Amino acid sequence: MKNFKLLIFLLITSSFFFSGCNKGMDPNRPTDAKGKRIKNIEEGRGASIGGLLGKVGGGTNFEFSSSNPMWRASLETLDFLPLITVDYSGGVIITDWYSQSGNQDSIKLTVRFLSNEIRSDSLKIIVHKKTCKTNSNCVTNISKSDLIKDELRSTILRKAALLEKSDKQKK
Predict the structure, then answer these.
(1) Where are the alpha helices (DSSP H) in the chain?
(2) Whose CB among 66, 130, 133, 153 lies 3.0–4.6 Å from 106's, allowing a Cys bridge?
(3) Residues 122, 161: one domain?
């Protein structure tokens, strides 16, 4: 009697576990690898080169640095300065210290891209200023003057707008 109750209990519990095993399975689904690949691609679950580059479905838009007018305009504007860090994926350009010959004041620029849109709030520009009395006695701080920031921002935005306009005309 004890074994019979145990057998009934096991049958009932196993029926609960195995009752959900076949839910949602398509009886017409392909079983071979080629058929599965074709069905996955038809349903949009497959990976393709076009899909990875954002050309097919998904709405993904991969932009490369050569296609971003803000990025190109910034590099063209800052091309006279020595650059330390240029990171497109991180959206930052950092220059080295720069001073005109004979001047004891140097500046270092950091340009951060907050957006790819051509707007004034898409760029964050930080100007660091270093003043040296001697080679070993230097003071570094963030510039309080907005003159360089404003001039740089307007130059980048103007160039970016012109680059975007010429890109649209080419298409």
Answers:
(1) 2-18, 33-42, 49-52, 69-77, 147-170
(2) 130
(3) yes
3-state secondary structure of 127: strand
Of 15, 46, 62, the residue at which a domain comes to its end is 62
List all residues 6 or more positions away from 166 whose beta carbon is below 8 Å from its beta carbon: none
Domain membership of residue 43 as a residue range = 29-62
Task: Indicate whether 78 and 124 sit together in one domain.
Answer: yes
Q: Are 135 and 124 in contact (CB under 8 A)?
A: no
| Residue pLDDT, tens place only, 57-101 | 444 444 555 678 999 999 999 999 999 999 988 899 999 999 887
Domain assignment present for residue 110? The answer is yes
pLDDT digits (tens, 9 = 90+) for 131-163: 888 777 888 899 888 899 999 999 999 999 999
> Does the reported pTM lie above 0.85?
no
Domain count, the chain: 2
Strand 92-95 and strand 83-87: the pairing is antiparallel
Return the half-sphere exposure (C-beta side, CA atoms, 13 A cut-off) of residue 150: 4
Separation of alpha carbons 63 and 119, rounded Å = 18
- What are the backbone angles phi and psi of residue 128, rounded to the nearest 5°? -95, 140
Residue 71 and residue 50 in one domain: no
